[in-house]
């Protein structure tokens, strides 16, 4: 699908520092950056005391440590959950906690969150205090089960709460009612990090470190893990999150990161000295996530906890293998999904507004990625289902701008009581379960609801461009400047540019990647470019000599040499 190109308007950037280049000032201003947000230093972080529940949680954990209680971290099976778990495990060990362990629910056996079933597992481990990370805010029954076992429960989460909060001993979540913490987009690992800093301060007031003969830990050593989890969870990179991510990236570039992250960068063939946020998002994060998608996320956690480079490399290689398996599954499922849509001979007018897909042999751990890929191709909200056993199918949903997926599922549930067994999620992503025989009924009800809720013009995707670069700006120095001006990411998007070019050369590399040599309209600059996963019905085509290209400036590194390359987001024959 060719997306509509929308150029960002010129905005007032006079409030930004004068030392910034004119282009960079405009890029920052268009993304809403304020003056103080151009200097990403740790002293600029939001104060912990503004996070509701943080002092109470710190006191409870400190009390548990003094009483030598058994503390169990209950995480989630994605990268945010793994990094959150690792941050708490490492910080508690650094602060002298002796009886501390973690538990990650298996996606296929227990599902998400602090369920009564996972509490029973925690009880079998003689846990006396549970600390949830990246989950728990909706675990009403799970917390009740834990209290029945006599456990204390501290919830740390960042997901949106429901109408009822669990009866935990303390809740730390910036999105809970009455919390003044300004960064509502903080990831679960960020919340966990804030809790650990508050705990460190609480223990300081109790002379804990002197009493136990240990040095007060530098929790800044954990910021590489915090950065990884924040980027991998695709939360909005507001000013606070950008500070956390930049601090973590600096540790990696300086060679001071965890050996597990170094090993993951190695298998992904990324240079730690030149890492940027997108390397966490597209190289390290997926390999970490692969453990939770196909196997046990404990492998991911152990990689982050590891202190020995040899063992870290072994685990990173195993994660890399799982990620390759995930890719192969994903490619096969995507081909099957596209074939099922093409088999219906649907033109764009007949295509459902809300696409629902189901195949019995699809893998539960990959349907979220599949839904995302189909959404990107057709720019429509997509739900992909897989068999979950016990007469149920599980779906993973991905939405587009203008449609709140969880609210939509609530609408379908209200209109068709009993059709959906359970559901939950947010604006852009959600999960649900149906009875196996209800798919066709649900697909129709879902499509009808989408047609009611979504404006037709939102079915056309948009690419937001920062305009056209002059030939003088199309150089390696500018690419380096933009690379170093991040971190870029969700809601602080990496700059996209567009322009008209003459195609000098075009050839296919790999199976679906188009390698190009482009020339500016004035004929003064020749540029290397690459477009990934092109439409093979259109490209390559030697009769196409001119194109409108939407691209990012990229620094290509090969055998120690650096060159400018355009990363093509969209190419449209002219």
Model description:
The chain has helices at residues 22-30, 54-66, 79-94, 116-124, 140-148, 188-205, 208-212, 223-232, 239-253, 259-267, 277-294, 298-305, 309-343, 367-378, 405-415, 439-453, 476-484, and strands at 4-7, 71-74, 100-103, 129-132, 152-156, 170-172, 355-358, 382-389, 392-398, 420-425, 429-435, 462-465, 497-509, 513-520, 526-531, 546-558, 561-573. It has 574 residues and is an alpha/beta fold. It contains 17 helices and 17 strands.
Main sheet overview: 5 strands, parallel
**How many helices does DSSP assign?**
17
Mean residue pLDDT: 93
Helix content: 25-40%
Backbone shape? globular
Low-confidence stretches: none
Question: What structural keywords apply?
Answer:
574 residues; alpha/beta; 5-stranded mixed β-sheet; DDH_dom; hydrolase; RecJ
Summarize the entry for a quick read.
The protein has helices spanning 22-30, 54-66, 79-94, 116-124, 140-148, 188-205, 208-212, 223-232, 239-253, 259-267, 277-294, 298-305, 309-343, 367-378, 405-415, 439-453, 476-484; strands at 4-7, 71-74, 100-103, 129-132, 152-156, 170-172, 355-358, 382-389, 392-398, 420-425, 429-435, 462-465, 497-509, 513-520, 526-531, 546-558, 561-573.
Set out the fold topology.
Blueprint lengths: L3 E4 L14 H9 L23 H13 L4 E4 L4 H16 L5 E4 L12 H9 L4 E4 L7 H9 L3 E5 L13 E3 L15 H18 L2 H5 L10 H10 L6 H15 L5 H9 L9 H18 L3 H8 L3 H35 L11 E4 L8 H12 L3 E8 L2 E7 L6 H11 L4 E6 L3 E7 L3 H15 L8 E4 L10 H9 L12 E13 L3 E8 L5 E6 L14 E13 L2 E13 L1
Helix pairs in contact: 2-6, 3-6, 3-8, 3-12, 4-5, 6-8, 8-9, 8-11, 10-13, 11-13, 12-13, 13-14, 15-16
């Amino acid at each position: 699908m060719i997306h509509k190109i929308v150029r960002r308007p010129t905005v007032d950037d006079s409030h930004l520092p004068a030392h910034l280049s004119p282009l960079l000032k405009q890029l920052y201003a268009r993304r809403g950056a304020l003056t103080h947000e151009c200097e990403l230093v740790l002293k600029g972080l939001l104060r912990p005391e503004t996070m509701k529940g943080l002092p109470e949680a710190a006191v409870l954990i400190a009390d548990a440590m003094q009483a030598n209680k058994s503390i169990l971290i209950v995480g989630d099976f994605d990268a945010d959950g793994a990094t959150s778990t690792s941050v708490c495990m490492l910080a508690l060990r650094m602060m002298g906690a002796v009886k501390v362990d973690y538990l990650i629910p298996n996606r296929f056996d227990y599902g998400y969150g602090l369920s009564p079933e996972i509490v029973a597992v925690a009880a079998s481990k003689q846990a006396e205090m549970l600390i949830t990370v990246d989950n728990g805010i909706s675990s009403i029954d799970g917390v009740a089960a834990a209290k029945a076992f006599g456990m204390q429960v501290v919830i740390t989460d960042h997901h949106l709460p429901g109408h009822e909060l669990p009866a935990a001993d303390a809740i730390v979540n910036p999105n809970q009612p009455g919390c003044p913490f300004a960064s509502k987009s903080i990831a679960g690992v960020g919340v966990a990090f804030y809790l650990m800093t508050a705990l460190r301060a609480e223990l300081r007031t109790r002379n804990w470190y002197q009493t136990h003969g240990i040095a007060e830990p530098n929790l800044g050593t954990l910021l590489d893990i915090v950065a990884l989890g924040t980027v991998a969870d695709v939360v909005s990179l507001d000013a606070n999150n950008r500070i956390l991510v930049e601090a973590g990236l600096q540790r990696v570039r300086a060679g001071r990161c965890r050996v597990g992250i170094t090993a993951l960068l190695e298998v992904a063939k990324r240079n730690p000295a030149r890492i940027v946020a997108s390397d966490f998002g597209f190289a390290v994060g997926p390999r970490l996530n692969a453990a939770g998608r196909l196997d046990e996320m404990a492998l991911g956690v152990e990689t982050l906890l590891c202190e020995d480079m040899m063992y870290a490399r072994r685990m990173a290689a195993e994660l890399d293998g799982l990620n390759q398996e995930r890719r192969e599954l994903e490619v096969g499922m995507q081909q099957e999904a596209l074939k099922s849509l093409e088999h219906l001979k649907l033109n764009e007018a007949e295509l459902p507004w809300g696409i629902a897909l189901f195949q019995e042999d699809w893998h539960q751990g990959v349907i979220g990625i599949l839904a995302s890929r189909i959404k990107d191709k057709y720019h429509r909200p997509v739900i992909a289902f897989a068999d979950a056993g016990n007469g149920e199918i599980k779906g993973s949903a991905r939405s587009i701008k203008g449609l709140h997926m969880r609210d939509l599922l609530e609408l379908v549930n209200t209109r068709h009581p009993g059709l959906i067994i359970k559901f939950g999620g947010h604006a852009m992503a959600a999960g649900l379960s149906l009875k196996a025989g209800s798919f066709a009924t649900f697909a129709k009800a879902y499509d009808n609801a989408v047609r009611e809720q979504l404006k037709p013009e939102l079915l056309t995707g948009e690419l937001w461009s920062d305009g056209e670069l002059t030939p003088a700006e199309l150089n390696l120095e500018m690419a380096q400047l933009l690379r170093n001006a991040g971190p870029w990411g969700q809601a602080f998007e990496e700059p996209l540019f567009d322009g008209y070019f003459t195609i000098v050369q075009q050839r296919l590399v790999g199976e679906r990647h188009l390698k190009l040599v482009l020339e500016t309209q004035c004929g003064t600059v020749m540029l290397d470019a690459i477009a990934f996963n092109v439409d093979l019905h259109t490209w390559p085509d030697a009769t196409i000599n001119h194109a409108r290209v939407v691209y990012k400036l990229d620094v290509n590194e090969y055998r120690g040499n650096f060159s400018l390359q355009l990363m093509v987001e969209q190419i449209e024959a002219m």
